[in-house]
Amino acid sequence: MANLNLNHWRISRRTALRGLGATIALPLLDCMGALPAPTTPKRSVFLYIPNGVNTLSWQIEKAGRDFAFSTPLKSLERHRSDVTPISGLHHPMVLGKHHNCDKVWLTGANVPGDGGAFRNTVSADQLMVEVQGVSTRFPSLELAIEGHSLAWSKDGIQIPAERNSQQIFNQLFGVEKESKETLRRRLSRRGSILDLVANDAKRVAHKLGSQDRTKLDEYLTAVRQVETRTQRADEWLNIPKPTLAGGDASRLSQRLDMKKVADYHRLFFDLMVMALRTDSTRVISCMICSESNGGAIPDIGISQTRHGLSHHNGDPEQLRRLTQTDTFLVEQLSYFLDELKAHKEANGQPLLDTTQVLWGSGMAYGHSHGNANLPTLLAGGRALGYQHGQHLDFNLPKLGQYNVADANAHYRVCSRPVDGDARLSNLLLTMLQRADVKADRFQDSVRPLQELLA
Length: 454
Known about the structure:
This protein is of the alpha/beta class. The protein contains 13 helices and 7 strands. It has helices spanning 13-24, 55-58, 124-132, 165-173, 180-205, 210-236, 246-252, 261-277, 306-310, 316-342, 396-399, 407-413, 424-434, and strands at residues 43-48, 83-87, 141-144, 283-287, 355-360, 376-380, 392-393. Helix 4 (165-173) packs parallel to helix 8.
């Protein structure tokens, strides 16, 4: 607070309470803008795992269509025609920096090497919201089984994630306990509070130092987001939430916890599928585990956190367990693809065909924090123009062949990019364009990945 002149300006208790009321009392308000005409859905789901993988057992060693899935990926064999494993991608501005990889996975922003505070940039999912989110009750869903949100606004502010499965169900399908008139009065009252907060902020902004202005700007960004959602929420009060069959409602609203990790993960995936099936949203991001202290899987006898396992120091048993957790997480992805494929839309097309799914991590391996050759899987989206069934490898044209038997040599591949132009932002740009976002570049992208397209 060194830049704040305490002798000339103090925030009054009344002003602080106004701000407190706006940021704490306001619930998530669901929709943005007047209801437009229905559009053809182009859906996107982003799924993040922390701390990389056991890259020695993960790496697919042959490019093209005649490849064999590695041990952790074998459950994807049944989805071969709908999935593309990708090798060699990286975020250039994150190389050599082991902190904040999760926070910039969908942004590609520069981060400080010491893990200190930084200002992020907009995440790819939120650019999709501007196009696909205008047609749905929820512009996007930010979820986290463990951890935090992957989504960041245009002002670089993190959008909060929901971690409670019952809250997610109620948000999507729950019956409002109050009448529409009561809800409208509440929305109007909140709008008035937001106006007061904005006016107070404008009045004092010029009296603040640079650091405090930055903090105030972050706060006002959050206020503006709530204000926009408040303005739009009234329109959706006249539109009933989807009604689920009794069996679906009971299954999706059940109370589970991490004592049964597989069931808990699949409950989140089931909620995502139902949100997409009912066109409640077309953009979802979900952190699967926390980078710092999550990821234990007692179902398969793994009590260690994923972060702990990633610091294996070459111990064979630790590596075996890490591969076991990699396998488990890919199996949950395979289940998600099963469910997306099983549901047919009105035109007979599988839901998976209109849904592009990105699964991956911002780190290749954790024990010495390599963040090139990121583990990356793209699935679905056949109706969006994708052609799957290949291993897209940006390393082999320059590398020639992999040698995972030499661990140190392969770790070097996962520490420094083989191809400097093989950027994760290229893939994110491709996904943006498939979702009808008018963009020629994203962050430090070089080109869209035409290799993925039919």
